[in-house]
Write a structure and sequence with these properties.
heterodimer; A: about 250 residues; alpha/beta; four-stranded antiparallel β-sheet; 8 helices; B: ten-stranded mixed β-sheet; ten-stranded mixed β-sheet; about 40% strand
């Protein structure tokens, strides 16, 4: 589904990704771990199409199309979804209006009719309860006054509504307590299917107990330096990043 | 400098006014001799004087024989009185609790009250003075003490044709009473250079009474109108306003609130959109005279095309107004590089135990917010529209009359979708 070859990217003049390679097939769940500053968020943002990040080399192929040729909204319509690490608050736009507009833009792109209002409300209410958020949140501004945990759960709710092909979770687990973590994991696991892929970018191993990955990669200094199965995450937790010769800004 | 009395406004004061009002009118007429036509050097007109372009003489405005094309733009269960080209139109409103009189029907104490209105007493508003100098037979509304009027009262200032309109309303709200007043300007000017509307609405809010005030303009964007609203707030009274404004050839609104009694509160909200080469000048002034009063102000403005918006928010806290709580927020959005917004907060504080916060922002749409919407598949144009509308909808949706809030949400969406 997604092929990344020798990807180089920079932000604010600083080179962050220095030749990243990755192959993701439909149905797979990948975890990308790494110390702070390794380029995890940069990778997420480049995949989503953030203009602030400049791709200076390499190839990005998504469903046999050149992802770099696609705008942010085109990528989303083709099924790319990024759950942000720090979702922004938009007080003037309601969660309801936001989701409705998004779903309909995507449906139109896929040649479907717009979802009718009643059907949309039904789905929205179901999914919001699935992530344990109060339905009254639908009328509030996007992420307005939400706690960190609520924002992350809102990201998962959006993911459940939009049903992406490629879901990228950018440190969705950071700052969550165990209960919230389980809710997030349940949401992601509910979406697992043979034609969907999930990429979890995470600093901690904890999330991987709940969303068990097929592959684990270690990102350091802008490159993937090691790949393995789920056991790799457990080894990293036990031995720390230093085991692979990487300096980590935080010690566990 | 040209003075106001050198212009032939093509209008005479009404001959049906009593002695008190005649005296008031004459005194204002005399003041025109020392009142300068605003120029760029007049501080209060610094950003708007160029748009005035007053002719030396105006034709006399004829009685209107056409129904306004803005009639029934929205449907609302309210009582409506129309002042069309300086004449109060026939109406059949009867109420035990609300008395409606024209200025020619006032007794002496009522006439005096009218001359004591906040705008009537202000010596700084040239066009309000004009309205007094050539005082027409305006509308006097009295709400009985303790009356809670559920149905909104709407006064329409209708102007069509060439000449000067000086619609004037005085609303006296008795103690403990409450009412919602809607002021709607419906303007059709064939020749902007030959037309001018100067409206005055003075409101006296008795102790513990409350007034909700909605003001809006419906016009084709080619009119010149200068409006003044004055509010005198007595002890424990409350005033809440929603000014929904669209730009025009020249549009100016002065909102003056005098907090005269302790415990009074005012909450001033405004939304202003200008496009093309339109103009809108918002001047607000809150006088904290009594202690323990609270004022809040929230104005949001959007300027597109080559248009211009002015916001001047003045808060004057007098020496004895201790424990004043004041806050003023003016947020502005520029949609094009040729649009201009001038925002000036003015705080003059003489009491030492007060809290007064003010904040102004002028910016463009937030890139992070735009990006977030796009990552959910929303196209650039839709994202811009959602954010632009969202910027003002918070205030529009808070407008207490649902039919008007809905109408404005729809109208603003149309204007902004077209623009974006």
């Amino acid at each position: 589904m997604l092929t990344i070859k020798d990807l180089h990217a920079q932000v604010e003049g600083k080179q962050i990704l220095k030749g990243l390679n990755l192959e993701i097939k439909p149905g797979e769940v990948h975890a990308i771990m790494g110390p702070n500053g390794s380029g995890k968020s940069t990778l997420s943002q480049v995949l989503a199409g953030n203009d602030a990040y400049e791709v200076t080399g390499g190839e990005l192929t998504y469903k046999d199309k050149d992802l770099l040729e696609m705008s942010t909204e085109e990528r989303a319509r083709e099924g790319v979804f990024l759950a942000f690490q720090y979702p922004v608050e938009i007080p003037g736009v309601s969660n309801l209006q936001f989701m409705k507009t998004a779903i309909n833009n995507i449906r139109l792109h896929r040649g479907l009719d717009e979802m009718n209002a009643a059907e949309f409300m039904k789905q929205a209410k179901t999914k919001i309860q699935q992530v344990n958020l109060d339905p009254s949140f639908l009328k509030r501004g996007v992420n307005e006054g939400f706690s960190g945990g609520e924002k992350k759960r809102n990201e998962i709710m959006q993911m459940l509504m939009l049903e992406p092909s490629l879901a990228i979770l950018d440190e969705t687990d950071s700052g969550l307590d165990i209960d919230a973590l389980k809710i997030v994991a349940d949401g992601v696991n509910a979406l697992r299917s043979p034609d969907r892929a999930v990429v979890m970018v995470t600093h901690y191993q904890r999330l991987l107990d709940y969303i068990v990955p097929d592959y684990v990669h270690v990102l350091a200094n802008g490159q993937i330096i090691k790949s393995g199965g789920k056991e790799l995450a457990l080894e990293l937790e036990e031995k720390g990043y230093g085991w692979l010769g990487i300096a980590d800004e935080e010690t566990a | 400098m040209t003075t106001m009395n050198t212009i032939d406004f093509g209008i005479q004061a009404s001959e049906d006014l009593d002695a008190t009002l005649n005296e008031f009118s004459r005194s204002n007429l005399n003041s025109l001799q020392s009142s300068n036509v605003p120029t760029r050097k007049t501080e209060a007109w610094k950003y708007s004087a160029a748009r005035l372009k007053l002719a030396n003489s105006f034709p006399t405005l004829l009685a209107s024989n056409q129904t306004s094309k803005w009639n029934e733009a929205y449907s609302l269960d309210c009582d409506t009185i129309v002042i069309s080209n300086n004449l109060i139109q026939e109406h059949s409103l009867k109420s035990d609790q609300v008395t409606l009189k024209s200025f020619s029907e006032l007794d002496e104490s009522e006439s005096r009250k009218l001359t004591e209105g906040a705008i009537a007493q202000s010596e700084k508003l040239e066009f309000a003075q004009l309205s007094a100098a050539y005082m027409q037979n305006g509308l006097y509304i009295q709400v009985q003490a303790n009356a809670k009027i559920e149905k909104p009262l709407r006064v329409v200032f209708d102007h069509s044709g060439n000449g000067i309109s000086l619609p004037r309303v005085f609303l006296d709200v008795g103690e403990n009473a409450s009412i919602t007043l809607i002021e709607e300007l419906r303007l059709q000017s064939e020749q902007p250079s030959d037309s001018l509307v100067s409206s005055v609405c003075d409101i006296n809010v008795g102790a513990n009474a409350s007034v909700r005030y909605l003001r809006m303009n419906q016009d084709d964007g080619h009119s010149k109108h200068v409006g003044a609203t004055g509010v005198s707030l007595h002890r424990d009274s409350r005033f809440e306003s929603y000014c929904l404004a669209l730009g025009s050839e020249l549009a100016r609104h002065d909102l003056l609130v005098k907090m005269l009694g302790t415990g009074a509160e005012c909450d001033l909200n405004g939304v202003c959109i200008t496009t093309d080469k339109q103009h809108f000048d918002n001047h607000t002034c809150i006088e904290h005279i009594a202690p323990h009063c609270t004022s809040n102000e929230n104005y949001r403005c959007i300027a597109d095309g080559k248009s211009k918006i002015v916001f001047n928010g003045r808060i004057h806290i007098h020496r004895d107004a201790q424990k004043t709580l004041g806050s003023m927020s003016n947020k502005n959005l520029l949609l094009s590089s040729e649009a201009e917004i001038d925002s000036k907060p003015e705080l003059e504080i003489y009491a030492d135990d007060v809290k007064c916060a003010h904040g102004t922002t002028i910016g463009q749409l937030d890139e992070t917010e735009l990006y977030y919407l796009k990552t959910r598949g929303i196209c650039h144009e839709d994202a811009k529209l959602m954010l632009t509308l969202g910027f003002i909808l918070e205030i529009v949706r808070a407008t207490p009359v649902d039919a008007i809030a809905e109408y404005w949400e729809k109208r603003l969406s149309e204007i902004l979708s077209y623009e974006l």
